[in-house]
Specification:
Shape of chain A: globular
Distance between the termini of chain A: 40 Å
Helix content of chain A: 25-40%
Number of strands of chain A: 16
Strand order of the largest sheet of chain B: 42-43-44-45-46-47-48-49-51-50
Largest sheet of chain B: 10 strands, mixed
Largest interface: A-B, 46 and 45 residues
Structural class of chain B: alpha/beta
Radius of gyration of chain B: 32 Å
Oligomer: heterodimer
Number of helices of chain A: 18
Largest sheet of chain A: 5 strands, parallel
Number of helices of chain B: 47
Distance between the termini of chain B: 108 Å
Structural class of chain A: alpha/beta
Strand content of chain B: 15-25%
Strand order of the largest sheet of chain A: 5-4-3-6-16
């Protein structure tokens, strides 16, 4: 398949972005999908490996048939490429924009050359699909008469709902917020992902028979018991929204916020939803604690607010510029990643432990006391005498999540006998085997962050799809 | 309904079948009365049915027809001189069989009968039954009673018994155990009044009737009651004897009155050591050297023919003789039986032979119309009995011999001035003074050699055949009656493709994206099957979680050792796809009506052709369609429907319909298709069982069949023609949606697809040595892996299947699941990925997957044993997704493990490890040398693969590392196989087959042959290198024995290894190999990797090593041969557990190929064949090679980690030494995968059988083979050549030579190479002159500096592997015949020769100069296939050439002297051009060579040409491959450029200075 010598002939290309100075002026997406010719040439770099590491368990969690669609793009069969892509991934426009692309980390070409631009190709396929009007609802030919409640409408819930609806089940998708999408709706800044794309999918899902109920908080508005009574199966596909806190002196000061207080406000504002007491970074010295993607999103948003100076702190040391020896190919490479938000301006500090937030005397944060750390015997220890202070008007905590929020629905299901795992997530297996995704109570299934813990969108979609298979197998038993 | 009831119901439906059936059953139920000392039925993996034999054969006849004592004595003498072609097993005194067939010695019989008080009538008025009787006297009495009674019942007179005096002390131990009581029964004419012919016929009838009666009443097996001969004209003396034992055992043979005008003799080499007395040759009419590959099909067809046979000679008596063919006979015996039937029912012996072994006629433009018509007519009656064969035959009046169409067995003859004719497998079996010889010839492919003793002359092939082909107006009969497809009217209506439903139907038939794009599309785009690489590591069909097509449960069988594969590409002239559909007529008659069949040029029908058949109304023809449908919801409906279809088909055929069309069109959501193969096989066997099969054709219209293997199976199980309608539709659809831009026109789809299938079928036939579809049809050349016996016995009767598995109910379940899956709405719009070839998460399970590759690379690179254990755990723990049979084996651990410190250290264990045979050429220099360094560091062995090895690697590096591969492979291409290469080896491995493509050759395209590879392979850069499918010096087991002997001679220190691939019967082959004196046997699994191979071969040929290894070990143990050979196993070995399983099943050494490559960076791209390996492992691209980042340490780590893991298991099992573990199958427990929906029926217990050896043996190699090289004449020569060897002083040696002196010169050459390397000695330093007829392999591997001259004749393989020496064979001075008309050397001379000179004064046999890559040779005439696959050197032919000259010749130049301008049509023009000799350089070269020829041989032909050189030069044609010409020009250009560059630089320097 493809062009056998393409990888020798063509260099890797990436998608073009608007200049940083320009893009920080707005909240629109600024990265542009490949031109058709570029996409074809990039597709030609794929070697159609005997073992495509991009596709297997070292690569794409949603099992995209990457070599296949690369070849289809190379040959110009875009409609077939879209069909192929959709056969494994319900929402490639999500992953094509937001996925960190473990596939590219596992790409065989990446052993000694820049990997194939898989993510860009994926996005190109779905963008072409929409442009040409190929993406259509796929309502089922037959209805099974089974009713399924899917609770939580992030990508896992969306994928589960869509799959189950296409299988002919009557699906109700519950969302506690005003719109569906979960973290990708309210967590991910619009400049990375414009939200009308979720609405577009919601429309498709509705046309396929999914009943979407927003603003309904299961556990509050509808009890777990009621859900169990009303539906033949229930999918728990909520998030892992409990944020990790930083319990150090001064945590209570004004101006210290969780990232997930800051980011959703912004998205709501952009969506024209009224927000009370918005947190603004305009003109401020912003410190973001946590070096991950959420931290990066805080940086990008703060810049767009017009922050004066942004500092991002990370406990871990700066990773190497190239793949670290500890994460050999084909594993996800540990290396220094510079996100588009970093390009827009931020100071990044590594190996920093925050000791306390300092008060300006009025209950507002004014600075952080930090100390440098080093790794000894597997533990971070402070380096004596390396203390220093950073000015801060706004501190954003982006240090990850601890699992699903326990009160409400989870509590109620726990009472009904549902177990959580050691990390506080809903206990269930992931996968395709018999019994996967089943929780410890009958007819209740779990998928996504609520089961896995905080993770990638692509994992969420994979979870939703596999969970749908499990639910279907359960519902169709003996049929 | 129970099985029993079903069976009885079938019988009720089929009353007409009862007769044939019950008589067939009668034979089946015959059991042995007394226990044989060894197994006569399968025990564990040992199955006597796989016994094969080959041999030496010959006859002597007096043209004058005088019966004399001398002829008998000389016959016996010949037998002894062919002894080296036979073999002995564990018991050196027990031969595999030897015997002699003579004219009835009336003078002797008179005396002998008189002694027994029997008065004999005149010669010809009585017959003698020569009988092997039971030793038990009372049983014998019963036999005698039956015999006497029937003789009288049939109007003959019983004259009396005579005990044949034998010396019971003569036979060996094994032979004595089954010693028969030998008698002569004398039968007179009595009331019988017919002619002499009629009397013979009556004796035949009597013999058959008696035979049936005795087997039925007394339940005697052949080993206890057998009639070697029963005739008034001939008599056979034979037994399980060595040659010299024959006259010693049979006192009769020493009697002075024992006289005959002819004697036909045979010396047998059986792969197995449990031959029985009856299996010895000659049979009643023939002695056979070779093998019938198509036996199963021939037997099935004969059985069904019997039902419609009628003979005017026998009338209703014929029925009493049925069945003619009995199960369980050897191929030769079966052949003899059918030949005898044809002759007894009225055809002449040569006529019958022509029917059974026809020449290759359809593509032979040189054959007369009449002869072609004869063959065409007879082809409608009987398929060829195909296989390598030299058959000698006689009826007492005529004696002759014929060769198969490929000419794969040797047969030489001479006539003396006293009118004695001697024919034998080799020259020199009887000493005849050269001056007495008036004719020296050899049999040619497909040709007959006949002596009529009453006419006192040799009758030429042309004369005898011309007479026979004119017996009837065969041509007219064919013309008037045969229906050619092209003449059928166009069909009325056609199927319009249903594109709307296509995807759904594709899903019903289980199509995957891989099927479409990886398998089918390339067939249309390239006109041939797709190529893949790196073997297979996917789940066996029976272990796969997914529903599999039935085809995947079958593996193609292939020829190895006992018979050769055919080269279907280069020797296409023997291949044939034409078949005939419609009813066959009475085999024993000939009428115009016999030709009334439909001739089908290609078995794959286009849609229109199928409709033509459906609508046929020509002559007697009518067709009826049956649906292969079942209801997927109804349980057991598949079985019900199949029973119904079979019954209905039988009724319809009985009522006169003669084309049965089975179709699976019309499937939908409610109707599922019955697997096509099941449908075809079921109907085929139902018709056979009812005796109706030859009355109809079976045509399949299938949506399921799509790849070559499918078609091969369908044809092999009885389909005559197949219409793959959905495959066509699919391909058209692919074209229409733009997926085939490579194809110019849509119209090519059918054409190319059918072409690809045709080529693929040829490849599959040829790997079993079969040439024609007609013989292949119904021949069942497959084995099943994972099917229940019930399924196999019922529908695939006679197919080997060892491990049980899936029942018919499970097959139905698979079909049902596939059907259900097809209607799963969610995936309606797409096809499944497949994932069989390329890994897919949702495809078939693979052991090599991202996780295992990653963990293996990381662990061996970082010296991280913990990660390595994760890797092995990921491979070994297959509970979730099973892939290998060994995953179903478990260990019976010791109650108390031993401390691991007490287990032998890893550094000892790694010495048993080897890396696989991968050539430098298929993998990069970096990968190849890294493996060598690593294996040398640990004391294991690396393997050159088939590509030679450059001599610089033989020198140890300063740091102590060595790049030298300990194992040097000798494969069919013989690339770079020089004397120096061979002596620089610890092991010489003869590759009989390779796991990825057993039975096939290979090709290294010219663009991959760069300078270094060209040099190592002794070829020209840019010139394509072809590895032939067969070793052209191994067409049978005794040939292999010869090659082993050759290699042992040149390098006595090296172990000689033979590499075999696992398949049913491999154990028996291995036993033969052990008897042929190999030191080492490698059993390769089917799954091994390779650089490039057709994908169907990777998937569908061979079986897992677990099966082959267990069978090999068990058969070697039973035969008492296990301790003579090392046994090694390989094929996707990956973990310590794999090694332990292999050891317990019987291996003492272990090979790894893919895994070490992975440690060096291979990531299973499966792109080896494209040269685009992105990690520099399997590529020659200099840019990509730079990306190689492996190190020897990685391989060393791997080997030690494996050994460590082995130690862990050993500790738990309680073994301290690895050798203690070998063959200890009791330590293995088989587990049934109870949780697996379909694999739960697998039963591996046969793998674990502990065989009881008949002869004592250890369970691993403890004894050395006796190679008998100490008696070699070379020992003397070396002694005499000492001054030359030590001090380079010239020596002259003169010695006589005989045919028993084989491989003359090789051992000497080894000594030269050892001392002087590739350089050798100065030319002519050692000059050896010999007189006589030399044995095989004369001058083999002759090194530079040695000149070997023979005055006399030489046999096969003369000058094989010539390595710089000079070889001369000239006629003895007193010879009276002319050189160019007579044979002087045998077949396959100069095979794989690399350099040197050779001059032969006379003609050569077949395949002269095959794969020559550098020798300059002059010959005065060649047989067929001359200079085949030649890649370099010069060959001058001063005489006629045979057909197919220069086939596959990619390099070198041949000059033919052709004054009559007749030779061009003999040249295969595929690769070469024919030119005049115009260039001065060419003319000079030619003149020089012919001058040398005259000087060395005194050739009259050379003298004649040289005397008239100016004119004669115009009579020469130059034959040169186009590619070679270009390559030469390129080299010259380059040399020129270099020259110019030098000049330019000089100029520049000059300019500067100036």
């Amino acid at each position: 398949m493809g062009k056998p010598t393409g990888f020798k002939e063509y260099p890797r290309a990436t998608q073009k972005s608007d200049a940083a100075a320009e893009r920080v002026k707005h909240y629109k997406e600024f990265e542009h999908t490949f031109e058709t010719e570029t996409a074809k040439v990039q597709g030609a770099r794929c070697m159609d490996c005997g073992i495509p590491f991009c596709h297997g368990d070292t690569g794409c969690p949603v099992d995209n048939y990457i070599p296949e669609f690369n070849d289809l793009v190379f040959r110009g069969h875009l409609e077939e490429a879209l069909e192929n892509l959709h056969s494994t991934n319900n929402f490639p426009e999500f992953t094509g924009r937001l996925c960190p692309a473990p596939c590219e980390g596992a790409c065989t070409l990446g052993i000694n050359e820049p990997p194939v631009a898989i993510k860009g190709i994926e996005r190109f396929i779905i963008d072409s699909g929409y442009k040409n009007g190929w993406v259509k609802p796929q309502p089922p030919k037959h209805k099974t008469g089974k009713r399924v409640a899917v609770v939580g409408s992030g990508p896992a819930g969306m994928a589960a709902s869509q799959q189950l609806a296409r299988m002919g089940h009557s699906v109700t998708l519950f969302e506690k917020n005003e719109k569906i999408g979960g973290l990708i709706r309210f967590g991910i800044p619009d400049f990375k992902f414009e939200k009308w794309q979720i609405d577009r999918r919601a429309e498709q899902m509705t046309a396929e028979g999914v009943e979407i109920k927003t603003g309904v908080n299961i556990g509050k508005d509808i009890s777990a018991d009621e859900l169990l009574k009303t539906y033949d199966a229930v999918v728990l596909s909520g998030g892992a929204e409990a944020p990790r806190d930083l319990p150090i002196p001064g945590r209570e000061l004004k101006g210290v916020h969780f990232a997930m207080e800051f980011l959703p406000q912004n998205n709501r504002k952009n969506a024209g939803i009224e927000v009370k007491d918005p947190i603004s970074a305009a003109g401020k010295h912003v410190v973001v604690i946590g070096g991950g993607d959420t931290g990066s999103d805080c940086v990008g948003t703060s810049n767009r607010h017009g922050a004066k100076h942004i500092t991002q702190l990370e406990l871990f040391p700066m990773p190497p510029l190239e793949r670290a020896a500890s994460t050999p190919w084909p594993y996800w490479p540990m290396k220094l990643r510079t996100s588009s938000s970093h390009e827009e301006g931020a100071e990044r500090l590594w190996s920093i432990n925050t000791l306390r937030f300092n008060d300006d005397g009025k209950g507002n944060v004014k600075s952080l006391s930090c100390i440098r750390v080093e790794m000894k015997d597997g533990k971070f220890v402070d380096i004596p005498g390396s203390e220093f202070e950073i000015q801060a008007d706004l501190v954003l905590l982006a240090m990850g999540f601890l699992g699903p929020v326990k009160n409400g629905m989870i509590e109620q299901f726990e009472k009904a006998g549902m177990q959580l795992d050691q990390r506080g997530n809903v206990k269930a297996d992931f996968g395709d085997h018999a019994g996967a995704h089943r929780t410890s109570i009958d007819k209740v299934f779990a998928a996504g962050d609520m089961r896995r813990g905080q993770s990638l969108i692509v994992w969420a979609i994979a979870e939703g799809r596999k969970c749908a298979n499990a639910v279907n197998a359960y519902l169709m038993q003996g049929k | 309904m129970s099985k029993k009831e079903r069976k009885s119901q079938q019988n009720a439906v089929n009353p007409a079948a009862t007769l044939a059936k019950s008589s067939a059953e009668m034979v089946h139920t015959t059991t042995t009365r007394t226990a044989m000392p060894w197994p006569t039925s399968p025990v564990g993996m040992y199955d006597p049915q796989f016994e094969k034999d080959s041999c030496g054969v010959g006859f002597i006849a007096d043209l004058k027809g005088n019966k004399s004592r001398e002829i008998v004595e000389k016959g016996l003498q010949m037998l002894m001189n062919l002894e080296h072609r036979g073999a002995v097993g564990a018991d050196p005194e027990t031969g595999d069989g030897a015997g002699i067939l003579m004219q009835m010695p009336h003078d002797f019989m008179k005396v002998a009968a008189a002694e027994a008080k029997i008065a004999l009538p005149n010669a010809g008025e009585y017959g003698v039954a020569f009988i092997f009787m039971p030793q038990d006297a009372s049983l014998r009495k019963q036999v005698e009673n039956i015999f006497e009674k029937i003789v009288v019942d049939e109007d003959l007179e019983f004259l009396g018994w005579r005990k044949v005096p034998v010396d019971d002390n003569v036979p060996g131990y094994g032979a004595k155990l089954t010693l028969p009581y030998v008698v002569h029964g004398f039968v007179g004419r009595g009331k019988f009044k017919g002619s002499a012919e009629d009397f013979e016929r009556r004796l035949y009838l009597v013999r058959r009737v008696i035979d049936h009666r005795i087997r039925a009443e007394l339940k005697l097996a052949r080993a206890q009651y057998y009639v070697p001969s029963f005739s008034s004209r001939t008599i056979v003396y034979k037994g399980m004897l060595l040659a010299a034992q024959v006259p010693a055992f049979f006192k009769d043979l020493r009697h002075k009155e024992m006289k005959s005008a002819m004697a036909l003799i045979h010396m047998r080499f059986s792969t197995n050591t449990f031959p029985t007395w009856d299996l010895a040759h000659p049979f009643r009419m023939i002695a056979h050297n070779g093998e019938i590959n198509t036996l199963r099909g021939n037997i099935n067809w004969m059985k069904t023919r019997e039902a419609v046979m009628e003979s005017p000679h026998y009338g209703p008596d014929l029925k009493r003789m049925l069945p003619i063919v009995m199960e369980g006979q050897s191929d030769s015996a079966t052949f003899d039986t059918v030949l005898e039937l044809l002759v007894m029912s009225g055809r002449s012996l040569p006529h019958a032979i022509m029917m059974m072994i026809p020449e290759a006629w359809s593509k032979n433009d040189l054959m007369s119309e009449e002869r072609r018509a004869f063959y065409e007519y007879h082809a409608t009656m009987m398929e060829p009995w195909d296989g390598p064969a030299a058959v000698s035959f006689t009826d007492g009046n005529v004696i002759g011999a014929t060769l198969d169409r490929n000419g794969l067995r040797p047969a030489r003859y001479i006539k003396t001035k006293d009118d004695i004719v001697i024919m034998a497998s080799e020259m020199g079996v009887l000493e005849v003074p050269p001056e007495d010889i008036v004719l020296s010839g050899k049999l040619e492919p497909g040709r007959m050699f006949l002596i009529d003793l009453s006419e006192h002359r040799i009758i030429s092939d042309d004369e005898i055949k011309d007479k026979i082909v004119k017996q009837q107006p065969y041509g007219k009969w064919v013309k008037d009656n045969m229906i050619k497809f092209a003449d059928l009217p166009q069909p009325k209506d056609g199927h319009s493709p249903e594109h709307k439903t296509m995807l759904q139907r594709q899903r019903i038939f289980g199509y995957t994206k891989e099927d479409l794009l990886t398998v089918m599309k390339p067939m249309v785009v390239t006109g041939q099957e797709a190529i893949g690489s790196m073997g297979t590591d996917a789940a066996l069909a029976v272990l796969s979680e997914k529903p599999q097509l039935l085809y995947r449960y079958f593996k193609q069988l292939f020829a190895q050792v006992t018979n050769p594969p055919v080269d279907a590409i280069r020797e296409e002239l023997v291949m044939e796809l034409t078949t005939y559909i419609g009813p066959e007529q009475n085999l024993l008659d000939e009428t115009p009506q016999h030709a009334h069949r439909i001739e089908l040029p290609h078995p794959i029908l286009e849609n229109n052709q199928l409709l033509q058949l459906k609508e046929i109304a020509e002559g007697e023809f009518s067709a009826k369609v049956f649906n292969l449908h079942f209801n997927p919801v109804k349980k057991n409906d598949m079985r019900t429907q199949m029973d119904k279809i079979c019954a209905a088909v039988c009724d319809t055929v009985r009522a006169g319909t003669n084309i049965i069309i089975l179709t699976d069109r019309g499937v939908n959501k409610e109707i599922a298709p019955i697997p096509s193969l099941l449908g075809v096989a079921a109907v085929h066997h139902a018709l056979i069982k009812s005796g109706l099969r030859t009355r109809t054709g079976i045509v399949l219209e299938s949506g399921e069949a799509r790849e070559v293997h499918h078609f091969a199976l369908l044809l092999g199980y009885g389909a005559n023609a197949i219409n793959p309608y959905l495959a066509y539709e699919t391909l058209h659809d692919l074209y229409k949606i733009g997926f085939m831009p490579e194809l110019k026109e849509e119209a090519y789809i059918e054409k190319n697809y059918r072409k690809a299938i045709g080529k693929g079928l040829y490849k599959i036939f040829s790997k079993m040595g079969i040439s024609t579809l007609q013989s292949y049809c119904g021949a069942q050349i497959f084995e099943a892996v994972g099917l229940d016996s019930e399924v196999v016995e019922h529908y695939f009767t006679g197919t080997p299947s060892r491990v049980e598995g899936v029942s018919l109910e499970m097959l139905e379940e698979e079909a049902r699941r596939r059907h259900e899956e097809a209607f799963a709405e969610l995936r309606e719009g797409i096809l499944a990925s497949g994932g069989l070839y390329h890994y897919r998460v949702d495809g078939e399970a693979h052991l090599w997957n991202p996780t295992t590759i990653a963990k293996l690379q990381i662990s061996t690179r970082n010296s991280d044993y913990k990660t390595f254990k994760e890797y092995t755990a990921a491979i070994d723990n297959q509970n979730k997704r099973r892939v290998t049979l060994r995953s179903l084996l478990d260990f019976d651990y010791a109650a108390t493990p031993i401390p691991i410190e007490e287990v032998e250290p890893a550094k000892e264990i790694v010495k048993r490890f080897a890396t696989g045979a991968m050539s430098f050429g298929s993998i990069s220099w970096e990968a190849h040398t890294n493996l060598a360094i690593a294996m040398n560091r640990i004391g294991g062995k690396s393997n050159t693969g088939e590509g030679g090895e450059s001599a610089e690697r033989f020198v140890t590096l300063p740091n102590g590392d060595s790049l030298r591969s300990a194992i040097k492979q000798v494969a069919s291409g013989r690339f770079g196989v020089t004397a120096n290469y061979l002596i620089n080896a610890d092991e010489l491995q003869i590759k009989m087959a390779q796991g990825a493509k057993p039975g096939e050759g290979g090709q290294l395209p010219g663009f991959k042959v760069d300078k270094i590879i060209g040099k190592v392979r002794h070829s020209t850069p840019g010139v394509t290198l072809i590895s032939p499918p067969p070793h052209h010096d191994i067409y049978s087991i005794e040939d292999l024995k010869q090659l082993i002997f050759d290699l042992k001679n040149i390098n006595p220190r090296a172990r000689i290894s033979v590499k075999l691939v696992s398949e049913s019967g491999v154990g028996t082959v291995a036993a033969g190999v052990a008897k042929a004196h190999a030191d080492h046997i490698l059993i390769s699994g089917h799954d091994g990797g390779t650089g490039a191979s057709p994908i169907s071969s990777i998937q569908y040929a061979g079986t897992p090593w677990e099966l082959g290894l267990a069978e090999t070990h068990q058969v070697l143990v039973v035969n008492g041969l296990r301790d003579r050979v090392y046994v090694q196993a390989d094929g996707q070995m990956k973990t310590g557990r794999d090694v332990v399983i292999a050891a317990l099943l019987g291996a003492e050494e272990f090979g790894f190929a893919t895994a070490p490559l992975v440690t060096l960076g291979c990531i299973m791209m499966r792109k080896c064949h494209l040269n685009t390996c992105p990690v520099g492992v399997a590529t020659q691209d200099p840019e990509l090679r730079k990306k190689f980042n492996g190190k020897p340490e990685h391989v060393v780590n791997f080997m030690f980690y494996i050994a460590e893991e082995v130690r862990e298991y050993m500790a738990k099992l309680g073994f301290r030494k690895l050798s203690d573990m070998i063959g200890r199958t009791e330590k293995i427990i088989t587990t049934r995968p109870k949780d697996h929906w379909k694999a739960r029926g697998l039963d591996l217990s046969k793998l674990l059988t502990m065989q009881k050896p008949v002869y004592k043996t250890d369970l691993y190699r403890t004894k050395a083979q006796n190679h008998e090289i100490d008696k070699q004449i070379d020992n003397r020569i070396i002694e005499m050549a000492k001054p030359a060897l030590d001090k380079q002083e010239p020596v002259q040696i003169q010695l006589p030579v005989t045919n028993v002196d084989r491989t003359v010169g090789a051992m000497l050459s080894g000594e030269v190479a050892k001392r002087y390397g590739d350089e050798g000695l100065p030319h002519d330093t050692i000059q050896i002159s010999m007189k006589g007829n030399a044995g095989q392999s004369f001058g083999c591997f002759l090194a530079k500096g040695v000149t070997l001259k023979l005055s006399g004749q030489a046999n096969d393989y003369c000058g094989k592997g010539l390595s710089g020496g000079k070889l001369v064979v000239r006629m003895p001075e007193k010879t009276t015949y002319t050189a160019p008309e007579n044979i002087i050397i045998g077949n396959t001379c100069l095979y794989g020769a690399t350099s040197g000179e050779a001059y032969f004064q006379g003609r050569a046999g077949e395949r002269f100069g095959v794969r020559n890559s550098g020798v300059h040779a002059v010959i005065e005439g060649t047989g067929d296939h001359g200079v085949e696959y030649m890649t370099g050197g010069r060959v001058v032919v001063l005489g006629t050439i045979g057909r197919n000259f220069a086939a596959g010749m990619s390099g070198g130049i041949a000059y033919i002297w052709d004054p009559k301008k007749v030779h061009e049509k003999f040249v295969n023009m595929e690769l070469v051009d024919i030119e005049d000799v115009t260039a001065e350089r060419d003319a000079d070269e030619l003149l020089h060579m012919i001058t040398r020829h005259k000087e060395y041989t005194g050739s009259a032909r050379a003298a004649e040409i040289l005397a008239d050189w100016k004119n004669q030069i115009k009579n020469f044609k130059k034959i040169i491959p186009g590619e070679y010409k270009k390559a030469l020009a390129a080299l010259e250009d380059e040399a020129q450029k270099e020259l110019e560059m030098v000049d330019e630089s000089k100029l520049k320097v000059g300019a500067k200075n100036g």
